[in-house]
Write a structure and sequence with these properties.
The complex is a heterodimer of chains A (908) and B (505).
Chain A (H helix, E strand, L loop, with lengths): L2 H19 L1 H6 L18 H4 L5 H6 L4 H6 L2 H4 L47 H8 L31 E4 L4 E4 L2 H4 L6 H4 L6 H9 L6 H4 L7 E3 L6 E3 L22 H8 L2 E2 L16 H6 L3 E2 L22 H4 L4 H4 L29 H6 L26 H4 L2 H4 L6 H7 L2 H5 L7 E6 L10 E5 L20 E6 L5 E16 L4 E2 L2 H8 L8 H7 L17 H13 L6 E10 L28 E4 L9 E2 L9 E5 L5 E5 L15 H30 L8 E6 L3 H25 L9 H28 L13 H18 L15 H26 L5 H6 L3 H25 L8 H8 L1 E6 L10
Parallel strand pairs in A: 5-6, 7-10, 12-14
Antiparallel strand pairs in A: 1-2, 3-4, 7-8, 9-10, 10-11, 10-12, 13-16, 15-16, 17-18
Helix pairs in contact in A: 21-23, 22-23, 24-27, 24-30, 25-26, 25-30, 26-28, 28-30
Chain B lengths: L7 H27 L29 H11 L1 H8 L2 H4 L2 E3 L18 E3 L16 H4 L24 H4 L19 H6 L6 H8 L26 H5 L4 H4 L37 H4 L7 H5 L9 E6 L15 E2 L3 E6 L5 E5 L19 E2 L13 E15 L4 E2 L10 H4 L2 H12 L7 E11 L13 H4 L11 H4 L5 H4 L2 H6 L10
Parallel strand pairs in B: 3-8, 7-10
Antiparallel strand pairs in B: 1-2, 3-5, 4-5, 6-8, 8-9, 8-10
Helix pairs in contact in B: 2-3
Amino acid sequence: MQLGFKRFLILALLAALVGFVVQGAALAQKGPLHPPIFLLDEDGNNVLDTGRPVSTLQTCGGCHETDLIDAHSFHSQQGREHLYPLGKAPSGRPWDFSQGLFGKWDPIMYRYLSPAGDRLKDMGTPDWVKIFGPYHPGGGPAMTSRSGQPLKDIPMTLGDPETTSFDPATNESHLWDWNQSGVVEMNCFLCHMSDPNNEARIHALRKGEFAWANTATLLGTGIVHPKENGVGYEYNRNMFDGEGHVKHENTFVKAASSKNCGLCHGEVQTEISKTLTYKDLDERDRVTMRTGQILSGQRISDSALNIKGKSTLNRSWDVHLERNLQCTDCHYAINNPAYYEPPEELRPDYLTFEPRRPDIADYLARPIHQFARGPVTEQEVGSGVAATMQRCESCHNYKDTHNWLPYVARHGSKLSCEACHVPKLYAPAIEQNDWTVLTKDGRGVMTYRGVEGDGNPKNPYNLIDGYNPILLPHQDPDGVSRLLPYNFITSWYWVYGDPPRPVRQADLQKAYFDEQGEYRPEIMQVFDANGDGELSAEELRIDSEEKEYAVRVQLTALGVDSPRIYGEVMPLPLAHNVAGSGYATRDCKACHSDKSRVSQPLKLARYTPGGVMPEFVSGAGLEPTGDFIQGEHGELYYRPSTVKAGLYLPGHDRVKWVDWLGFLMLVGVFLGVFIHGGLRVYAAAHGVATHHGRTRKVYMYTFYERLWHWTQAIAIILLILTGIVIHRPDMFGGVDFGAMVPVHNVLGFLLLFNAFFALFYFLAGERIQQFLPEPKGFFYQAIQQAMYYARGIFRGEPHPFEKDERHKMNPLQQATYLVILNILLPLQILTGILIWGAQRWPTLSNALGGLQYLAPFHTFIAWTFAAFVIMHMYLATTGHTPTAALEGMITGWEEVEVENGHDATTIA
Amino acid sequence: MLYGKKNWIIGVLVTLAIFIIPLALVAVPRVQSRQIDNPRAHLPKHPVPADHSGFFENADFKTGQDVTKACLECHPEAGEGMKHNNHFTWTHTYSRDEVPGIHDNVLGLKDPVLTGKAHVINNFCITIKPNWPACTACHAGYGWKDETFDFSNEENIDCLACHDTTGLYVKAKSGVPAKSVNLVDVAKHVGNPTRLNCGACHFRGGGGDAVKHGDLDNSLINPPDDLDVHMGKNNMVCTDCHRYKGDHVFKGRSISVSLDDANQVHCTDCHSERPHADDRINLHTKTVACQTCHIPAFARKEATKVFWDWSQAGQDLPIHNPHVYLKIKGRFVYKRNVIPDYAWYNGKVGDRYLIGDRFDPSKELVLNPPGGDINDPNAKIFPFKIHHATQPYDKKYNILLTPHTYGPGGYWSEFDWDKALRDGAEAFGLPYSGNYGFARTAMYWPITHMVAPADQALQCIECHTPDGSPGRLDWKALGYPGDPMIYGSRQATSETANATMGGLQ
């Protein structure tokens, strides 16, 4: 290249050398670190000489490989580098052909980039630059054609959307000369200045002065002034030195900061002293308006927005910004040597850290402008670098800081960090976007969530109350589905034709309005129900066949073929506005209760236009494990289902029939006890002679047997009680769910150890025999015992079997205990251990069906135990005297009847 | 016999132990993890005052001294204690070597050096001597109107100023009770000092409410929760922190009069050294005083004086706002909700202007710069109110002058600077050339009251600003190469020459 460039290069490298070798000294010096720059035009000549627009690719390209930066940046390419055949884009809409703003339908902006060959054309590439340019840093589709040619080189053909500007209002097409308008190069200044003039840039784009857009960004630095004729800019020589550089002290280039990102992405507030006001809720703040996320380190209570309960909201909007993080601290350039770390799968097992870094000089020459991203999905732009970002747990040690939380690993495998740490959004977010009707200003009806009153977020009389995001599973890069908070935007709009296209905004306007901009009489006739000549918010919605028909007639008359209403749900994952520990969801019952966050429905819409059920935009990574439900007044909700998501939350989930069956069993036992006991009391009261046989005291239960019995009894009763709290925490408001869980676990292990020791005791001492029924004559004896309970007991007959230390149990008891101790108890302990162990051995638990099967099973056996405890307590009163058995189990000595014919001995 | 009938009690105990021990093992760490700093446990228990309403039935108290005499009958030790209390002595004695700073040029400096309220110079009303009656209205004694006041007479001690609970006790010039006060009634209602007792003088220092300290004013008599978390939300009284140590000695110190930090009150008297749940914040406590973050602004309710221009005094200006101009005092600037100035501070004064000290009038003279700098391991970054003023000095000797303001012949009645300065110089034995001017001076007032609730404490980004834009702390002025979050803490900067990025490691 020319001499100028070489000199520039040498100077730049020298300055860079000085800058990096004596970094401390250089930083302490006044003035910017970046070496002085020439501003060059697209031919590489100094703009001072030519007066032409600044070419960022040339100006910055002297040292940095701008071509490479532009070609590998999802910010500039916006999906242009990989266009899909129509309808084959991952978003699944039949008219989408890209992952990015260039070719993916955005129902909120409501303009459609026309592919070649469409009969009704909405936007050509030049129109796209004008309309979407404000959200686009230039380069990509603003420079390069869909097939990869420079826009300036492609032949001009009227009707080709690449070289034609369409006016859908008049259906006129104009040839667009890219050589005359210039192209928008990737705008380095927009992100690498502390105060880029975005307004001037947008103004130039809207006017179609594409070549000047990047130069306009410099307005305000003093380097450029608008030309007197209003087109373009001229340069202020005073800001340049004798050699044609921008003077060193005027060098404006710096690393990108959060403020720069905020220009397109949303409300980013970096000045702590500046109060957040309604003015800051700008419609250009895409992310803020769509999700309610405001990126500010300021306390919510310090904002001037009228937020409900603001005085107690002493948390910051985003804890990371409060802690002075910049966007680029997480979303860094992926070859930034300070952050670069090869993905785990590319790293051999013997390395935990890759010490080899890209050289800083290489990085400065070729800083890849692909920024690390979270687990974005294929429907979004930049999916190629998805999950390059450090995850929460790369920086945070959640296991040690969450030691208050039982089952940390289990929670970590089912929940994203955001699920608890983005508990609520405190700014309004778009809820419903209805383009089936138009308001007086020719736009669709937009309603917001998180704001009371008429839902207008900019009206200070509407109290902002914020909203809880919906929690739904999202497939993470490690293949695990975790619950992630989302906002849903539900859009309805007309589509037409086959293959379908969204009806153009201009056609809609023509369908609704006459030439004076008034609603057409045909429209008024069906929409204006009260005939006051105005359309209220309730009237302006398609809720009847007539209204839908009236609009369809108008659209058809305009040549729109077979118009019909289409609805879609756009899920927007929320990863910002993170709350610190004090404000994150912490109460166990927030999820483990009837009104669980995990199944809290999200309102999608106040009404359903045309009764059309919306569909999820595909490829969003979301697993739509929920159901659409209709509210009482026609609202539409989406309610997540834990069952569909494969989750079982103790305290929230239960199987109804299991509980009913268990409950009926318990009621049955109670009834039986009540009737049987009542009859016994009746019999006693009516003088039925009780059997007065000879009695004697027998040392019935050894110390260990009693210890075992009572330990087991207390453990089972406490387990049932704590288990009920865990099962139905909503019924026990004052009890700490979080404390019951570990107590239940400890009791469970006590029961296990107790059973184990008892088994050993009974086996080793051959005392097991007393539990084993005698096979010979078992049925006869069982019937004999049953008959005693059914009849004899009321007549005061003696017990059919004498009880002594070797024969403590009658055949019915033996059979019952055989089942309880050998089947139910082991099963209950086993299911309990598997539930407890779900986080230690998840594969084992999952192999047995996971919590979804184990937990209801465990619950059912718990019901059986409850029934057994009642029955057991009652039957313990059927001894010689009602308290004889109890006394025996306490002291060991029980008074038993001595029946004729038996000659038992004592072991006194 | 092991299996005795009554041994079931052992069984019960064993069974209970089987349950209680494992459950306790689970529960104890849970409870322990919830235990937090409990500052309330450190609060002193004040003695319940005896009811004095039955006493003094036949007393006829004509003067304050009469009351004190009665007090001393039952509390003889209080008199001995108060005689050494700085509320009464207004004097502290240091040997010359103990006074910080270089004082080779002090005219008429004696050894030991007398300091304390009665002997130092400030940039409000300047000196006590020879204006006693006006100043000693706040003296815990009776009748200090000139040099002859008898500090050895215990009856000259004013007990009621601190122990009145009626709120009706008022002191007049020279500290004697105002004529309106019913001394018998007040004496019958003595009790423990409240905010009102201390505040009667300390909230009104400098000649009116909120003038002097910036963090002490009448709004603290009944402060709202968010003005002062201690006195508001927790309704604490001054003596909860400024504790009684016996013999009528209390904790408390300020470099506006004191030179050292002996007997100082510290936040850590009640709060833990690492009181925050977040370790990142606890890392700050070695370098940053609690007050720095927890008092985001002072004078949050009443405006405080930040500038006093004595040189404007004596004019008949059509200004009737006493917060803007007074003929006797000059022009003022008051500010409300002031963001403090921040400086390194080791609790002691770094230098002290002594009466007779020669100084350079071309620069602003700091009368009491706080001690310590970035290299002083005991120094922390601390918030201050800096009170600026112009005050008279002798152009020939380059010393600050001590005008006679109050009383017959004083500036406030005659408006004659020359005469007032000559009288004042004479009183102190200072030379006076007759050629006077007004020098710019500044005074540091440590900000330590008006602690805001924790949720209003400073956030990280107020000092560690994104983009290095100016924040609350001027890192370079404090001696850092830049934000220590990026350039490293002071330990890192002093230990390694090239400590860039140390803070991020």
